[in-house]
Amino acid sequence: MREPTATVTASSTDTTTATTTNVAAMDAQPPQALLERLKDYGQEHTFAFWNELSSHERQLLVKDFESLDLPRLDRIIRCSFRSQGLPVDAIEPVSENIVSTVEERTIEDRERWWKMGLKAIHDGKLAVLLLSGGQGTRLGSSDPKGCFNIGLPSGKSLFQLQAERIMCVQRLAAQFMSEVSASVVRIHWYIMTSPFTDETTRKFFEYHKYFGLEADQVTFFQQGTIPCISKDGRYIMETPYKVARAPDGNGGVYLALKSSKLLEDMAARGVKYIDCYGVDNALVRVADPTFLGYFIDKGVAAAAKVVKKAYPQEKVGVFVQRGKGGPLDVVEYSELDPSLASAVNQTTGRLRFCWSNV
């Protein structure tokens, strides 16, 4: 892993009789209204084994689908397919005027951003948001990635490394503002888990006494799940009466924050800025005061740390713009045409698509 080299800115008896009758009717055939809705979205195959299911299994299948927001899922699937195989002229390199490279920064700028960041942290304006919903299946474990001993001499887990970095920044902010305030600095840590990692993550933090942090400065919340789909956009069934599901990705953080009322919680705490990162970034500078100060100074809505792509075939996603002056996006290495991946900017000497997502 490499450290970032630049920064990019940018949801009664009668009753018993009726219930029995409804179940009996359901046993005969799938609920017609639900089946028609599934046909509208090309998902009617999910009821293919209806005649082979028991009465209880049929009820589970219907309940499973009634819990799904079918229109929203259809939009997600269609959007995903539209983003694949984009024509060459659909993406542009990130504009140089919104990139600040480490080597081009002056000592004065770095010191100014450092102080701005520390003051904002001291004033309680920064929260840290950790994306930690995934399991370490590719590493041969079903445990949350943050629980792993990644082979350091200290034996520290990713969660411990990140907690200690938060405590370090708290001390730095307190020392920086000690002449004007003797208050204790606390950075609130929001940790997004998933139904597959939530319980284990909470127990891990409790067992390790929150790695020195106060228990009430750590908030856990769960991201949602969405159906797994095949290459042709059809739901995959875990069993004949249950849809296979997976965490809804890092993008699920927005809906999860809204549904768990944590946006209101942040506002009540006076949080103005959020430092968001992924759990498996072992080199992450959590609550980096310089990055925060840079962000505040530029007055932008969002910024991202990036690493200069090492060579054209390096397997990293890169930041792009969707069309001239369009929104920033990340295109994965598997989706970027080889000719674009190897193209060079003749002015800078760098690859045209060189800013990779950490």
Can you offer a commentary on this structure?
The chain has 358 residues and is of the alpha+beta class. It has one domain: Spore Coat Polysaccharide Biosynthesis Protein SpsA, Chain A (Alpha-Beta Complex). Helices cover 35% and strands 17% of the residues. It has eleven helices and 15 strands. A four-stranded antiparallel beta sheet has the order 3-1-12-15. A four-stranded parallel beta sheet has the order 6-5-4-11, sandwiched between helices. Strand 4, helix 6 and strand 5 form a beta-alpha-beta unit. Helix 5 crosses helix 6 (158-176).
Question: How are the strands of the largest sheet arranged?
Answer: 3-1-12-15
Structural class: alpha+beta
Q: Tally the helices: what do you get?
A: 11
- Per the principal axes of the C-alpha atoms, what is the gross shape? globular
Distance between the termini: 9 Å
Spans of at least 5 consecutive residues whose pLDDT stays below 50 are: 11-26
Second CATH tier, the architecture: Alpha-Beta Complex
Relative strand content:
15-25%
Structural Rg: 25 Å
Helix content: 25-40%
The CATH topology name reads Spore Coat Polysaccharide Biosynthesis Protein SpsA, Chain A
Can you identify the CATH superfamily?
Answer: Spore Coat Polysaccharide Biosynthesis Protein SpsA, Chain A
